[in-house]
Design goal:
By secondary structure, this protein is mainly α. It is built from 18 helices and two strands. It has helices at about 10-40, 45-70, 75-100, 105-130, 140-165, 170-190, 215-230, 235-250, 250-260, 265-285, 285-295, 295-315, 325-330, 335-350, 355-365, 370-380, 385-405, 405-410; strands at about 200-205, 210. Strands 1-2 form a two-stranded antiparallel ribbon. The longest helix is centred in the N-terminal third of the chain and has 32 residues, at about 10-40. The protein is globular, with a radius of gyration of 22 Å. It starts with 10 loop residues before the first helix and ends in a 25-residue tail after the last helix.
């Protein structure tokens, strides 16, 4: 029996992780810089929400087609090409800002193009982890992924605010450099081109090549959607996550407005947002312990409740720096939920369906997310930053109360097969159990 290499010595995974970390750090710079740029150009929180919403809409629309194509195409080439194109898009935006010709329609167009690239990058990254990490190390791998996400969230916003203070184009120039660096790391990582049990062509007994049958994008996507629908508990979790992402994605613009109303500048706003990274990094380190205390369904209810209460608490009138404290609690529990759900999905989904299934689950979780920035911008414009945050927190609390009424969600553990005897494809794993 071959000894399993420790995760820290898995060179391909670590190169993939470094590339993702560098890319995400650059994206965190522009996550703050983009709404600040729109507000500087127009003074309209609503337009800032529209730009952010346009990116999410584009990502959502192409997600399932991208998942199908990722399962069909050379995954390594897809990842490298999409990351390289993302660098080109970022460079175009930086150039427009530098020459003083940027307009709102430029920002919307380039945000959409960036989303199209990201729609291909994410499913390849997810399938690559399954291909290069042993099943016994998946929890550690996804915990490290969560650490990357929240570490970037910790240092990215304040650095983004600092870079924006040096010049409007600076965060976007640096973002371009990080995308180029990530492309190099992805080349070195040599992610699997396709699943180990799926070859570009198989041999027939007569010696002729037989290529895999493609049943059409609609049919392949429908197969993945049907698979999800038949998993009781998982479908209820997905519905609750949809609402969580809608309301959770709406708070950024009201928060920026709130800090500005209290006299905070770009650097203050970035530092406040670093609270998300602090809580997320701590939560990622504690994810193993927390996940053993609560099953995924109940953990989701806790996340909804804590998120809502903390969001409402940001409106307390204690100065521009205060929101940083409740933001820490917002992301303290979410990494554990992400890690647990990622491990469950990675273990139970057939490897040849990972791209499609990841896209379907991601789309299910983000179907309402495009409306989040628009909702947040509209609430901040109509009310104020503080009132908008209280409203969003109350809606999250109400969502937790409604979700708690679902027996399937409360009992969801990801460890037992669903009742009902649904049909599955030969060779697939029919239930929420490790393969």
């Amino acid at each position: 029996m071959t000894d399993v290499v420790p995760l820290r010595r898995n060179v391909r995974f670590q190169l993939l992780w470094i590339g993702s970390a560098v890319s995400q750090l650059g994206s965190e710079f522009t996550r703050l810089a983009m709404p600040l740029l729109v507000l500087a150009l127009t003074g309209s929180p609503g337009l800032a929400g529209i730009v952010a919403g346009a990116r999410t809409v584009a990502f959502l629309l192409v997600q399932i087609p991208a998942g199908v194509w990722v399962d069909r195409w050379d995954r390594r080439r897809t990842l490298i090409t999409a990351q390289g194109l993302q660098a080109v898009v970022s460079a175009l935006l930086a150039t427009l800002i530098l020459i003083g010709q940027v307009q709102i329609w430029h920002l919307v167009t380039l945000a959409v193009l960036d989303a199209l690239c990201a729609a291909f990058i994410e499913p390849v990254q997810d399938t690559a982890i399954r291909g290069i990490v042993p099943t016994t190390q998946l929890h550690s791998a996804y915990a490290q992924e969560e650490s990357r996400t929240h570490a970037a969230g910790l240092i990215g916003p304040p650095l983004g605010g600092l870079l924006y203070g040096l010049g409007r184009a600076v965060p976007f120039v640096v973002d371009t450099i990080t995308f180029l660096a990530a492309t190099i790391f992805y080349i070195l990582a040599k992610v699997p081109r396709r699943p180990a049990n799926q070859s570009p062509a198989s041999s027939r007994e007569d010696g002729e090549e037989r290529h895999p049958v493609r049943r059409g994008m609609r049919r392949e996507a429908t197969e993945a959607i049907t698979w999800l629908w038949r998993r009781r508990g998982l479908r209820e979790v997905t519905a609750a996550v949809m609402v969580l992402n809608l309301l959770g994605g709406a708070f950024l613009i009201p928060l920026i407005v709130l800090v500005g109303e209290r006299g905070g500048g770009a650097l203050t706003t970035g530092t406040v947002l670093a609270g998300l990274g602090i809580g997320g990094l701590a939560g990622a380190l504690l994810s193993g312990r927390i996940s053993r205390l609560l099953p995924p369904g109940r953990l989701l209810l806790v996340v909804l409740t804590v998120f809502g209460a903390a969001l409402a608490a940001t409106a307390l009138p204690w100065g521009p720096w205060w929101p940083m404290v409740p933001l820490v609690f917002i992301t303290l529990s979410t990494p554990s939920l992400n890690v647990v759900l990622n491990v469950v999905i990675a273990r139970m989904v057939p490897v040849e369906m990972l791209g499609r299934m990841g896209a379907v689950l991601s789309m299910g979780g983000t179907a309402l997310k495009p409306f989040g920035p628009v909702l947040g911008g509209a609430l901040a414009a109509a009310l104020s930053g503080a009132v908008a945050l209280v409203v969003l927190g109350g809606l999250l609390g109400a969502t937790a109360a409604v979700a708690a009424l679902s027996r399937e969600l409360r009992r969801f553990t990801g460890e037992t097969a669903p009742a009902g005897g649904d049909a599955v494809q030969p060779g697939t794993n029919p239930g929420l159990v490790p393969e």
